[in-house]
């Protein structure tokens, strides 16, 4: 027989180079097969790194499509200087020397006179500890990354409540959890780890519950789906809290030992009312049932009582637990009272609460692992409550998102499932409470660095970033009375405020990896106009715009100067413990990227460009004593920069090459990372694996590794003291007072215990706009990046607006129909599609599929530009005017998180446009890189 000879194991490359994926935020390990072709290294194939702690060899479709990202026709080729008008996309290529000269000519004078004239904001930057350090050295208070318009409510809600949050800050105990409940999670972030985790827990019989208006992604594989009405997650969660309290299914011992539930709250009317009582050293007081008196919470033999009460001078101070039980046992939180509003029948809420209670208490687990707590008590075992939760942007991108995220943490803590076996576990460098983070700094001195880190956690009015006259110190108005606890800044307000000169005018806007002229802004058409707007004298309202991107995005067209970044396979990066590392609950871990292939264009990694520009400007830390450039490039910085003596960006192979965490810089460090597959892992000892905030073994290990300089145990804070401090100011107490127009809002929203309110009420609309409209980031792409990727475009070339069955039928839609969608702010005309697994009053679409003509090297008739669209045109960065002349941001009033998902719309069926194109038409930009070829393929031989 003549059998064909098939080579089942072709050699795909000459060499495997191991680095870190950047096709989304998960940072999986990848093996890049490289072939030398005509004297040049070329990427032949990408697969998962089987040893890597994040993905264990698993690679998603995006990850393998990295080869097309790396070879995309949309890659920028050299620095660009604008020669046309902003928005036109007309540039000339220039040298790096000329680019630095131009940038320095704008930046040098403002640094010497007023550094706050620079606003430096980064997007999906994975080097924030570096970019913020640069901005600090420059001296501007105006720095933040994209957290403010992404998920700051999730991060801040978690850190203020329990010293850590979901996503990269923690994970379920996948091996032991039996019930996993996801709130508002899209699958584009934390993709591989959650997919793998769900697979593992389903393998041992665990159940997955999805709470999400849209049954896509993880919700599609959930055993049970709750199609909650957007913005009501907090109400649903507090109803679950109500049910559990009523049934007595809460972990009393956990609450008494490890949380502030037994802490006494000051009941004296006046400036301290509602604050936790503390001793002279600032330690919270609990009621000790052993000695029948208030005592410090961390005293060795204290026995905290949840129901304690202290009679003092005619007032009774009661515990946090008393206050929360009193609050959430009221009928307003009963399932029957919230069913209609949340869209979830009362019986299903009761059933979910019962399932949580059954698994947490009837199926509790006990690990035979001895451990010692912060009071010095030895525990023979570890008790597990095998219910875990995960949440992300879906619940946080509402104006009530911070309190909703806190409500979810309250639920977790009440059942004792945080940092216990089977529950939610922190990943190093967490746990780390808000009090262990820096406070925000904003003191500007011409010609000198800022007085400290820009971002951080405020603990009361004294920490706000206000100028002496009380006006905002930052261009985005973060850390002001309008949004006091805006821990990640407010990137969505920067362009709007800079354009309005409110609170002041700026000179230069420096953006990195944030497509702010398109899908990363609310009010896209308005933002494009603001970026291109001119004063009567013909000069631009925002005088200078510098942008760094690897690709010819929409925002490139609005820049005066473009610094071309590399692709992720051509650069050095550190995924650092100083920043957003790749740790697991069982281990600390960090990683690098390195140039597995050299750029074939005149491009530089943005961080290296900042190092060179910083040296040219003479910024402290970037030059040596003789004024010469201190770091050759970003790789040099990664190895030799020390944030504290012995602690640098990378933890592995420090000192003589044998030290982990602490140690002097080691010139061979990057070689050791590369030899180890691009990452380093430091395992947490067995006795330190759980109860980390209170576990002496963990605290000691964290100090040894350099995560902290001394042990710092703490208790979870269900009662958020900073919130109460702002309320007290709004009630008239203290020297620093809010403006009168904000007093009522601060009092209403900044409750020290989680609350719920209708986040859409502030948008008005006279009852005309009743349907919630959501965007979801495509699982197959990472924000905009993917639009130029030939493989990924085949998955999402266009995006219809999905309607649930009742709206589909009520409007008489059929396949290939179109709709006009209106909001108080604008209208779009778009194709529609039917999706039954959707909340009955919600429509949605994918974000970042629609493209502007000329961008991303796409052809003018590409489906992305013809039928693709953005919902962003309907969302405004400001709330509708209130006739008070003020600009109210469309944000969470506590943290300033962009309230993307509070959008309400009206829908009507319209005839398909004659030209078959979605509206609005945003015009065309010229492409500095031309158009991609019709047929994008090549062979690496
Ligand atoms: S999950 Fe993200 S980081 Fe991991 S392979 Fe996929 S795209 Fe890359």
UniProtKB/TrEMBL annotation:
SMART domains: Molybdop_Fe4S4
Localization of this protein: Cell envelope
Domain 4Fe-4S Mo/W bis-MGD-type: 14-74
The keyword Metal-binding appears for this protein: yes
Keywords: 4Fe-4S, Iron, Iron-sulfur, Metal-binding, Oxidoreductase
Region Disordered, residue ranges: 912-941
Pfam families, per database record: Molybdop_Fe4S4, Molybdopterin
Domain of life: Bacteria
Stretches of the chain forming a coiled coil according to its record: none
Cofactor dependency: [4Fe-4S] cluster
PANTHER family assigned: DMSO REDUCTASE CHAIN A, TUNGSTEN-CONTAINING FORMYLMETHANOFURAN DEHYDROGENASE 2 SUBUNIT B
Protein name per the record: Molybdopterin oxidoreductase family protein
Organism of provenance: Jannaschia ovalis
Lineage: Bacteria, Pseudomonadati, Pseudomonadota, Alphaproteobacteria, Rhodobacterales
């Amino acid at each position: 027989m003549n059998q064909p000879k098939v080579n089942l194991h072709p050699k795909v490359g000459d060499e495997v180079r191991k680095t870190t994926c950047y096709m989304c935020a998960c940072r999986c390990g990848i093996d890049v097969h490289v072939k030398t072709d005509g004297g040049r290294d070329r990427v032949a194939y990408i697969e998962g790194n089987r040893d890597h702690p994040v993905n264990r060899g698993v690679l998603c479709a995006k990850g393998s499509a990295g080869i097309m990202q790396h070879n995309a026709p949309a890659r920028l080729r050299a620095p660009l200087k604008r020669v046309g008008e902003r928005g036109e996309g007309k540039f000339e290529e220039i040298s790096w020397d000329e680019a630095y000269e131009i940038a320095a000519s704008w930046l040098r004078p403002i640094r010497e006179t007023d550094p706050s004239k620079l606003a430096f904001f980064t997007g999906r930057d994975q080097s924030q500890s570096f970019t913020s350090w640069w901005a600090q050295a420059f001296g501007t208070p105006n720095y933040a990354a994209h957290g403010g318009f992404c998920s700051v409510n999730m991060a801040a809600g978690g850190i203020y409540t329990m010293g850590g949050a979901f996503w990269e800050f923690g994970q379920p105990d996948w091996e032991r959890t039996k019930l996993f409940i996801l709130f508002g999670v899209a699958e584009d972030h934390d993709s591989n780890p959650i997919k793998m985790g769900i697979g593992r827990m389903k393998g041992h019989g665990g159940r997955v519950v999805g709470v999400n208006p849209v049954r896509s992604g993880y919700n599609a594989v959930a055993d049970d789906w709750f199609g909650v009405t957007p913005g009501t997650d907090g109400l649903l969660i507090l109803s679950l809290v109500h049910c559990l309290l009523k049934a007595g299914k809460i972990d009393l011992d956990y609450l008494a030992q490890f949380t502030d539930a037994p802490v006494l709250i000051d009941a004296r009317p006046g400036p301290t009312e509602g604050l936790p009582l503390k001793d002279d050293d600032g330690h919270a007081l609990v009621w000790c049932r052993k000695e029948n008196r208030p005592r410090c919470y961390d005293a060795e033999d204290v026995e905290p009582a949840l129901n304690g009460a202290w009679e003092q001078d005619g007032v009774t101070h009661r515990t946090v637990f008393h206050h929360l039980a009193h609050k959430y046992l009221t009928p307003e939180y009963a399932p029957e009272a919230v069913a209609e509003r949340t869209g979830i029948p009362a019986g299903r809420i009761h059933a979910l609460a019962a399932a949580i209670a059954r698994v947490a208490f009837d199926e509790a687990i006990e690990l035979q692992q001895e451990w010692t707590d912060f009071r010095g008590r030895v525990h023979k075992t570890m008790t597990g409550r095998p219910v875990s939760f995960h949440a992300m942007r879906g619940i946080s991108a509402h104006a009530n998102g911070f309190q909703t995220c806190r409500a979810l943490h309250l639920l977790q803590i009440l059942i004792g499932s945080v940092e216990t076996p089977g529950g939610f576990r922190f990943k190093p460098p967490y746990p780390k409470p808000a009090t262990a983070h820096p406070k925000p700094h904003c003191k500007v001195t011409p010609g000198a660095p800022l007085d400290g880190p820009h971002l951080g956690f405020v603990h009361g009015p004294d920490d706000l970033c206000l100028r002496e006259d009380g006006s905002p110190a930052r261009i985005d108005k973060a850390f002001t009375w309008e949004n006091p606890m805006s821990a990640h800044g407010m990137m969505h307000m920067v362009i709007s405020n800079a354009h309005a000169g409110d609170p002041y005018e700026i000179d230069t806007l420096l953006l990195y990896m944030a497509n702010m002229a398109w899908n990363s802004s609310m009010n896209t058409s308005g933002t494009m106009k603001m970026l291109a707007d001119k004063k009567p004298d013909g000069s631009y309202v925002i005088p200078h715009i510098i942008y760094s991107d690897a690709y010819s995005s929409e925002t490139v067209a609005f820049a005066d100067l473009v610094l071309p970044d590399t692709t992720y396979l051509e650069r050095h990066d550190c995924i650092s413990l100083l920043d957003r590392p790749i740790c697991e609950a069982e281990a600390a871990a960090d990683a690098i990227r390195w140039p597995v292939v050299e750029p074939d264009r005149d491009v530089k990694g943005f961080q290296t460009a900042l190092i060179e520009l910083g040296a040219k400007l003479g910024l402290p830390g970037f030059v040596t004593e003789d004024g010469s450039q201190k770091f050759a490039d970003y790789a040099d910085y990664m190895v030799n920069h020390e944030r504290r003596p012995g602690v640098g960006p990378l933890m592995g192979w420090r000192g003589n090459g044998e030290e982990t965490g602490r140690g002097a810089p080691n010139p061979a460090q990057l070689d050791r990372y590369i030899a180890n597959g691009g990452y380093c892992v430091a395992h947490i000892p067995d006795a330190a694996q759980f109860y980390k905030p209170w576990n002496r073994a963990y605290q000691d290990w964290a100090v040894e590794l350099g995560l902290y300089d001394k042990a710092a145990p703490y208790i979870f804070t269900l009662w958020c003291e900073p919130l109460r401090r702002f309320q007290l100011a709004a009630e008239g107490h203290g020297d620093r007072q809010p403006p009168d127009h904000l007093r009522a809002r601060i009092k209403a929203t900044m409750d020290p215990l989680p609350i719920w309110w209708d986040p859409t009420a502030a948008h008005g609309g006279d009852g005309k706009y009743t349907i919630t409209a959501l965007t979801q980031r495509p699982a197959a792409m990472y924000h905009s990046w993917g639009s130029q990727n030939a493989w990924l475009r085949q998955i999402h070339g266009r995006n219809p607006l999905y309607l649930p069955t009742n709206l589909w039928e009520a409007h008489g839609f059929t396949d290939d129909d179109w709709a006009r969608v209106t909001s108080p702010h604008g209208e779009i005309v778009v194709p529609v599609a039917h999706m039954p697994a959707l909340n009955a009053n919600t429509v949605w679409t994918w974000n970042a599929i629609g493209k502007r003509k000329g961008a991303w090297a796409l052809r003018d008739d590409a489906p992305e530009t013809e039928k693709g669209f953005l919902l962003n045109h309907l969302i405004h960065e400001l709330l509708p005017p209130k006739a008070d002349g003020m600009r109210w941001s469309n944000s969470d009033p506590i943290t300033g998180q962009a309230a993307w998902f509070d959008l309400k719309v009206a829908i009507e069926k319209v005839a398909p446009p004659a030209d078959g194109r979605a509206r609005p038409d945003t015009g065309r930009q010229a492409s500095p890189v031309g158009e991609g070829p019709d047929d994008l393929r090549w062979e690496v031989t």
